[in-house]
Amino acid sequence: MAIDTRRRERQLKAFVVASDLPKSPVHPFYTALNRLLAENGFAQLVEKLCSPYYAETMGRPGVPPGVFFRMLFVGYFEGLKSHRSISW
Question: Which tops the pLDDT comparison, 42 or 54?
Fold first, then answer.
C-alpha cells in the first residue's frame, strides 16, 4: 500500500450545543418543591445565612447556596449517598 493513500473516515465534531440535547420530562414532585421553595424565598434566605462563609477574593466562584442545598435535597430524596453521585 502506498503511503497515505488509505481512505480516511471523517472525524465527528466534538462540540455539542446544549440546546440540541434531548430534554427529559420534569418530575411533578420536584416542580412542586421548586415552586414552594421559590415562593418562600429559600434561595435568598440561604444566601444570607451562608454569606459570612464566602471569601471575597479566593478562587473561582462556588455553586450558589440555593442551588447547592437543592442538590442536597435531590440527593436525600433519591437516596444518593455522596456528592459525586448527586453531581452525576
Answer: 42
